[in-house]
Write a structure and sequence with these properties.
- The complex is a heterodimer.
- Chain A is an alpha+beta fold.
- Chain A has a single domain, classed as Gyrase A, domain 2 (2-Layer Sandwich), CATH 3.30.1360.10.
- Chain A has 2 helices and 4 strands.
- The longest helix of chain A has 27 residues.
- Chain A is globular and about 50 Å long.
- The N terminus of chain A is likely disordered.
- Chain B has 8 helices and 18 strands.
- Helices cover 29% and strands 30% of the residues of chain B.
- In chain B, strands 1, 2, 3, 4, 15 and 18 form a 6-stranded antiparallel β-sheet that branches.
- Chain B is of the alpha+beta class.
- Classes of the chains: A alpha+beta, B alpha+beta.
- Chains A and B meet through helix 1 and helix 2 of A and helix 2, strand 3, strand 4, helix 3 and helix 8 of B.
- Chain B: One of its GO terms (molecular function) is DNA binding.
């Protein structure tokens, strides 16, 4: 069985279905609600994003669909990259604050 | 004069009417309410423009997050950490909880080679019991084992369990119960140097008193055990926590302005957790909200139903992490955040590769 820590090679981890610049569906393998819901959350909080939603189409498929529609200013690809950076920023700040609190 | 008063009071009324929907909305934004019929308004709204009518900017801003975010430690024991996390929304708190349970790697017994087993426990049941024994070793010192490769010192720990039950000269049964303390670590290659000088730091089961199998005189178990590194999503034996959970901070407000002594004491007595205190002039306040279990006993009596307001604060989490012993709970939480960041990096890299 494949494990999360063995990356899926050949760029197969993400597939993009997109006909227009401002909207896309990202199909990720080996991801679940952990990243799906977090990404959905930061994307919704991005003022340049009109809609985001995710689903796990089948519980035994190990697949996650993330839909993004922007308001037109940015591309869906840029929006997801901003979202990922936002999660990382949140994480780094939680880590810093936590280290200060426990030490 | 009377006309004037009338006018001012009516304009005040109009202002109140304007305020009321905003107050309701603000309450919905920051609180989850608990009523007699159940919880209400559980779903958080995260759309950036959702609260524009309140003049509240619901979009994500790192500066605002940094300003509001706080962590306060409530309980700090070697295997149990409880802390408050304030100013973060449920999706992030939940992502960390999920990572704590299922995605932090640990070492656990994966391959069991049974050389001899004359106990009454079947081989497969014995192997399963052994697999669930928590092993005290820092998993960060090891690599993930590639299925196609041979075992190496960097990815495998070997234990031996060789116990024979017998009767000693006094007729006492020796080794009637095989326990986890009888597992012997067998260092391979230069593995001993990975763990320093102190034998206390050597790999061993977290607890020495876990019964594995019972034997009668003459019965033997002789087993070789191979530990591998993996994560809780693969099998729960690799989960580093007993539980990692959170709850929302209770927020209890009592409108006790019209209370007399009898009412105040009655309300205080209804709470099985003794959350309330009676202050001057029979004002009741919720002095220990952390103890509240949201049992709703205080709002069951129609007398208090509209007096006590039971709510939870939407972005105030009481986080509890119980470690199984491989790593302290503090380290587990730090690792969880690192894994969340790593996951984002992975996705980012594969996106950039594709573009």
């Amino acid at each position: 069985m494949a494990s999360v820590n063995i990356p899926v090679l050949g760029g197969n981890k993400i597939e993009v279905v997109s006909e227009r610049r401002d909207c896309a569906t990202f199909i990720m393998t080996e991801e679940d609600h952990t990243i799906g819901n977090s990404l959905h959350y930061v994307l919704m909080k991005n003022p340049k994003v009109d809609f985001s939603g995710y689903s796990i189409p089948h519980p035994s498929d190990n697949k996650l669909n993330l839909r993004i529609q922007t308001k037109g200013e940015t591309s869906a690809q840029d929006a997801i990259l901003t979202g990922l950076n936002d999660i990382k920023d949140i994480g780094k700040h939680i880590l810093e604050t936590f280290n200060d609190a426990v030490n | 004069m009377s006309k004037n008063t009338k006018k001012s009071s009516s304009s005040k009324k109009a202002a109140d009417n304007e305020k009321v929907p905003n107050e309701i909305l603000e309450n919905q934004r920051t609180r989850v309410s608990v009523g007699n019929a159940g919880v209400e308004n559980t779903r958080g709204v995260y759309y950036s423009g959702a609260y524009t009518s309140l003049g509240y900017d619901n979009s994500f801003s790192l500066e605002r997050f940094k300003k509001n975010f706080q962590i306060k430690v409530l309980q700090d024991k070697p295997d149990h950490l409880v802390f408050e996390m304030i100013g973060v929304d449920a999706p992030i708190a939940n992502a960390l909880r999920r990572i704590l349970i299922a995605e932090i790697p640990t070492m656990a017994i994966e391959k069991v080679f049974i050389i001899n087993n004359t106990s009454i426990l079947q081989d497969e049941v014995l192997a399963h019991r052994l697999g669930l024994i928590p092993i005290k070793v820092d998993p960060r010192k090891f690599n993930f084992k590639q299925a196609s490769k041979e075992y190496t010192a960097e990815d495998t720990l070997i234990f031996k369990l060789n116990v024979r039950c017998y009767k000693d000269e006094n007729g006492e049964t020796v080794n009637g119960t095989v326990t986890s303390g009888q597992l012997k670590w067998e260092p391979t290659e230069d593995q001993e140097s990975m763990f320093g000088e102190n034998p206390e730091d050597f790999p061993r089961p977290v607890h020495d008193d876990i019964p594995i199998v019972k034997l009668r005189p003459g019965q033997t178990v002789d087993i070789q055990l191979y530990c591998e590194k993996n994560i809780g999503r693969e099998h729960i034996k690799w989960s580093p926590v007993g539980t990692a959970s959170y709850r929302l901070m209770p927020d209890i407000t009592v409108d006790s302005s019209k209370f007399d002594k009898k009412q105040a004491e009655k309300l205080k007595a209804t709470c099985p957790k003794n959350v309330f205190d009676i202050e001057d002039s029979y004002q009741v306040i919720a002095a220990r909200p952390l103890d509240c279990t949201m049992c709703r006993e205080c709002i069951r009596d129609p007398e208090f139903e509209n007096v006590v307001k039971l709510e939870r604060i939407r972005d105030h989490f009481i986080y509890s992490i119980e470690s199984l012993g491989a790593l302290p709970p503090k380290v587990l939480f730090q690792e969880a955040i690192k894994i969340l960041i790593e996951k984002c990096d992975d996705i980012e890299n594969s996106l950039k590769e594709m573009m």
